[in-house]
Write a structure and sequence with these properties.
Structural Genomics Hypothetical 15.5 Kd Protein In mrcA-pckA Intergenic Region, Chain A, alpha+beta, 2 domains, five-stranded antiparallel β-sheet, 5 strands, Ribosomal Protein S4 Delta 41, Chain A, domain 1
Length: about 200
């Protein structure tokens, strides 16, 4: 299945959630208007239990930029491990290389992070990695290539004093490190992990 490249506003309005990773006044005004509801607001239909599970799964997929097969494979992986399934799922999602690059502030969005990785602008432990789904391991050092370090947009992002680095990452200059595996309380996930697990447990 190909990655969705259509209007992200449509996905955001369907989920009732801003997934753009940046402020958008026009989207904020339209979040409560589902797609197709521009010409007179449509009433949001009360979702069934399955519908609620599906919606939460779609939210998570849209936020992290994953295809259905990628997402279902992650859920299957955590299902084979010992531990709390929701926390294990968050851990795998948050330690994807594209997400770590985004969390470190090297990219403005996860989509931009994927593009940087695909263009060979990110190195892990001094080795160039071009796979966005690469799972970052403990103490891995993620940094920018010399060319990426000269990118004006990247440098501008790094100068942002309001950037918040999540507690499981450490950022120093133009590099960062995974200090420990992420936990649910480290982030404010705008989706219900339990409903997602239930969706794939049917």
């Amino acid at each position: 299945m190909a990655r969705y490249i259509g209007p992200k506003h449509k996905i955001a309005r369907r989920a009732g959630l801003n997934i753009l990773e940046k402020d958008s006044a026009s989207l904020q005004r339209r979040l409560n208007v589902p797609p197709g509801g521009i010409h007179g607001r449509k009433m949001r239909v009360r979702l069934s239990e399955y519908g609620q599970q599906l919606r939460e799964k779609q939210k998570a997929k849209a936020i992290y930029g994953l295809l259905e097969k990628q997402f279902s494979n992650l859920v299957k992986t955590v299902g084979r491990k010992k531990g709390e399934t929701g926390e294990l799922l968050i851990s795998l999602l948050e330690t994807r290389l594209d997400n770590v690059v985004f969390r470190l502030g090297f990219a403005k969005t996860r989509a931009q992070a994927r593009q940087m990785i695909g263009h060979g602008q990110i190195v892990v432990n001094d080795k160039k990695i071009t796979i966005p789904s690469y799972q970052v391991r403990l103490d891995d050092v993620i940094s920018l290539t010399s060319n990426a370090q000269k990118n004006a947009q990247v440098l501008s992002l790094m100068e942002d004093k309001d950037r918040i680095i999540v507690p499981f990452l450490k950022q120093e200059g133009l590099s960062g490190k995974l200090l420990r595996m992420p936990k649910k309380e480290d982030i404010q996930a705008p989706f219900d992990l339990q409903l997602i697990i239930e969706y794939y447990s049917r």
